[in-house]
Amino acid sequence: MECAGIEGAALDNALILIVEDEPDISSILEAYFQREGFRTVCAGDGEMGLQHHQMLKPDLVVLDINLPKADGFTVLGELRQRGDTPVMMVTALAEDLDKLSALRIGADDYVVKPFNPLEVVARAKAILRRGRSTEAAVFRLGDLVVDPTAHTAFVQSDGSKAHLDLTLTEFTLLAHMIRVPSKAFSRAELLDACFPDSDALERTIDSHVSNLRRKLDKGGAEGMLTSVRGIGYRLS
């Protein structure tokens, strides 16, 4: 199944890739996104979704989990290997384990069916706004450098740069924390900063922080992101 949407002006005419094997749900999502001015393209299975992503470079992927040919977790894992395209999971799987698995792999949001299409579009807009926010400042903490405008983060040491391959949510977390070095951020505060329009659980932050800390340590910023017992996390 493939379907092309209309041109629009919302959020710079962003392209939404909908990977969903139920035609009725796919059509509903497409109609609501198009009504808000987004362009859309649809795929009815995981393999087609990956092909569309490779060819079209969408601004955001709306992804089901129970898909033919390649399930949503497989697709999400491949997308994360390719880069940081924002991904919103929209699925009937409502168990916390499924949510945490998706978020660990790198999903930016998780919506359970049945859903309100208006809410899906609103949450997609929030993800895109976070990714496209621009700021003039470049933040430095030790060897760690975060540039929100260029949406880059790297560790600079001995004249070399180790770029950090972060998802949108991981970058948002890092950019938020580096503004106030050494502050102990609560999970609720980080959740509000990264998922302002979401009903995600506070433990969602733990999954993203765990991934971010692993990438920081691997990139040469070992020990900068630490846990604060009873509160949350600190970047120092």
Spell out the blueprint of helices and strands.
Blueprint lengths: L14 E5 L3 H13 L3 E5 L2 H11 L3 E4 L8 H11 L4 E5 L4 H10 L3 E4 L4 H16 L6 E3 L2 E4 L4 E6 L2 E4 L4 H11 L5 E3 H8 L8 H17 L5 E4 L3 E4 L1
Parallel strand pairs: 1-2, 1-3, 3-4, 4-5
Antiparallel strand pairs: 6-7, 7-8, 8-9, 10-12, 11-12
Helix pairs in contact: 1-5, 2-3, 4-8, 6-8
What does the model show?
The chain has 236 residues and is α/β, with parallel strands linked by helices. It folds into two domains: 10-132, Response regulator (Rossmann fold), CATH 3.40.50.2300; 139-235, Winged helix-like DNA-binding domain superfamily/Winged helix DNA-binding domain (Arc Repressor Mutant, subunit A, Orthogonal Bundle). It has eight helices and twelve strands. The chain has helices spanning 23-35, 46-56, 72-82, 96-105, 117-132, 168-178, 187-194, 203-219; strands spanning 15-19, 39-43, 60-63, 87-91, 109-112, 139-141, 144-147, 152-157, 160-163, 184-186, 225-228, 232-235. The strands form three sheets. The protein has a five-stranded parallel β-sheet, with helices on both faces. A four-stranded antiparallel β-sheet has the order 6-7-8-9, covered by helices on one side. A three-stranded antiparallel β-sheet has the order 10-12-11. Helix 1 crosses helix 5 (117-132).
